[in-house]
Specification:
Arginase, Chain A; 12% strand; eight-stranded parallel beta sheet
């Protein structure tokens, strides 16, 4: 049985250009149920966490201004979203979902958030459609509340560097940040992860998977994590408008298979968040995300 965070709270007003990619959050659970990969019982409705848990990661000044719609126009533009109360509720709910996924993964081996992966959010600001950093907050939650969790590995395979996550944990030796991303892609000014693997435009299945297979097993051995967060963005696809890499859908699934098999073999609890996906055809986005759940169900159910 999988444990999946999903909150139907994505219908807040958005500019037309944002509505298309947001549809995946509704279509993905429908497809999972239609195919019988999961049942209704596998889903749980997340709730916003206590404010104190958010403030382990984000500054009080930024969080309270975000909460009350007091960001400057420049700050709002950097996020890519117009502020609304619904947007704020959505963001804290996503963050709460990833924290709860972390709690459940400790017992089930894995938990997945249909949303999440907001890795461009810094402690004191949002960027790139990310307002609050859910995986960072969940990692800090575990370090604060779970004595058995002494080392965390964040595996960020979204096509964009996890700059916010890297900055948040730059001085935190208990969290190792690994980002494998497009070298010339957003953000133009990269932060320094513990390990960055920048990829050339047009990197295909063979090159991508070869590099991942050469890197991640050694990383698991060296870091010796007690817990893994995996950001499984599907903007690595050749069909993606923003990604500039050349992975096929099959290659993307092999990526997920490799990461999750490694966690399973090492008995590492793992939380998976969906991250980005901006292909022209919605079916390419949804099907690639569904593959992540298919893979997880086959390994952990």
């Amino acid at each position: 049985m999988l444990s999946i965070a999903w909150a139907p709270c994505y219908a807040h007003p958005l500019p037309a250009g944002h509505r298309f990619p947001m549809l995946k959050y509704e279509l993905l659970p429908e497809q999972l149920l239609r195919e019988g990969i999961v049942t209704e019982a596998d889903f749980f409705l997340p709730a916003p966490p206590p404010e104190a848990e958010i403030l382990r990661t984000h500054t009080a000044d930024y969080y309270h201004r975000l909460q009350h719609g007091q960001l400057t126009r420049q700050e709002e533009r950097a996020t890519g979203f117009p502020w609304s109360e619904e947007l704020f509720v959505r963001e804290v709910t996503i963050l709460g979902g990833t924290i709860e996924c972390a709690r459940r993964a400790l017992h089930n081996g894995i938990a997945l958030n249909v949303a999440g992966g907001t890795h461009h959010a810094f402690a004191d600001r949002g960027e790139g459609f990310c307002l609050l950093n859910d995986q960072a907050a969940a990692a800090n939650y575990l370090l604060a509340h779970e004595p058995r969790i002494q080392k965390i590995l964040i595996v960020d395979l979204d096509v964009h560097q996890g700059n916010g996550t890297a900055a948040i944990f730059q001085q935190e030796p208990r969290v190792f940040t690994f980002s494998m991303h497009g070298a010339r892609n957003y953000p133009h000014r990269k932060e320094q992860s513990d390990l960055d693997l920048p990829l050339a435009d047009g990197t295909d299945d063979a090159a991508y998977l070869g590099l991942l297979r050469d890197t991640l097993p050694h990383l698991v051995e060296e870091v010796a994590p007690d817990f893994v967060f995996y950001l499984a963005g599907v903007d690595v696809l050749a069909t993606d408008k923003l990604g500039h890499l050349a992975l096929t859908r099959a290659g993307c699934q092999q990526r997920d298979q490799f990461v999750l098999e490694l966690c399973h073999q090492h008995q590492l609890p793992v939380v998976v968040c969906m991250g980005g996906g901006y292909s022209e055809r919605l079916i390419d986005i949804v099907e690639a995300h569904v593959n992540t759940f298919r893979t997880a169900a086959a390994l952990f159910s």
